[in-house]
Write a structure and sequence with these properties.
Layout (H helix, E strand, L loop, with lengths): L32 E4 L3 E6 L5 E14 L8 E14 L4 E12 L34 E3 L4 E6 L3 E4 L5 E4 L2 E3 L3 E14 L5 E12 L4 E7 L3 E2 L2
Parallel strand pairs: 6-11
Antiparallel strand pairs: 1-3, 2-3, 3-4, 4-11, 5-7, 5-10, 5-12, 8-9, 12-13, 12-14
Length: about 220
């Protein structure tokens, strides 16, 4: 049972956190491929009747197939925006991120082979904890996949020390977060590589605390 008195509620309505990491390569020898992605939207009704809608918009990837000048290197810059609405006065936290796989199928609503932590990737919902890493420089072999969050929000903890959070909190029924040119750097994968976005949302109402996840469309890293 969760002691709701201990659940932190930090204002973050409509906040946009932009991550700008990496620069586009424009040389003829390292021509980039721009991939527009469709994003998506899901709506779910929770056990207490609360309606949650998660949307992923403005999604794209700019892919450089061989940043390290070898077939084992991939590099991409990804952008997108997530919006969440919760009926009533519900709030929660938004955790945007990406799953990257090397010669592994990540198109079935989850990923298999090497995903960290204890998250359940078997369906369209990632259960609490997700187990994603905090960086996007990944080393993967065949049959492996790994996930990471795009946010790194700096704030003071309860003792005034510096803390880094991978989520954006919201309240009063809505929230959003935007990221731009977030780097995905992959090494060690000799076969095909893919990535896909996810937006996991922890929703808090007077009666329930639950996780819901929207998956983006998989795309090739070359």
């Amino acid at each position: 049972m969760i002691n709701r008195k201990n659940v932190a509620r930090v204002a973050g309505v409509g906040a946009a956190a932009t991550v700008a990491l990496g620069l586009f390569s424009t040389g003829a020898a390292n021509a980039d491929t721009f991939v527009p992605l469709p994003g998506g939207s899901i709506t779910k009704t929770l056990s207490d009747g609360t309606v949650v809608t998660i949307s992923l918009t403005g999604e794209s990837a700019n892919i450089n197939p061989s940043m390290g000048s070898t077939p084992l290197h991939r590099n991409a810059w990804v952008s997108g925006s997530a919006q969440v609405s919760v009926s009533g006065d519900g709030g929660g936290s938004i955790f945007p991120g990406y799953t990257v796989g090397c010669q592994v199928n990540i198109s079935g609503g989850g990923a298999t082979g090497g995903v960290e932590g204890t998250a359940d990737w078997s369906g369209d919902t990632v259960t609490g904890g997700v187990g994603a890493t905090s960086g996007a420089n990944l080393t993967l072999g065949p049959g492996q996949s790994q996930s990471f969050y795009v946010l790194d929000l700096e704030q003071a903890d309860d003792f005034g020390n510096e803390a880094h959070k991978k989520r954006n909190k919201f309240k009063n029924g809505s929230g959003s977060v935007t990221w731009a040119d977030e780097t995905i750097g992959l090494t060690g994968c000799a076969g095909y590589a893919q990535a896909r976005a996810f937006v996991s949302v922890e929703v808090e109402t007077d009666n329930v605390i639950t996780w819901t996840t929207l998956w983006g469309q998989p795309f090739s890293l070359g």
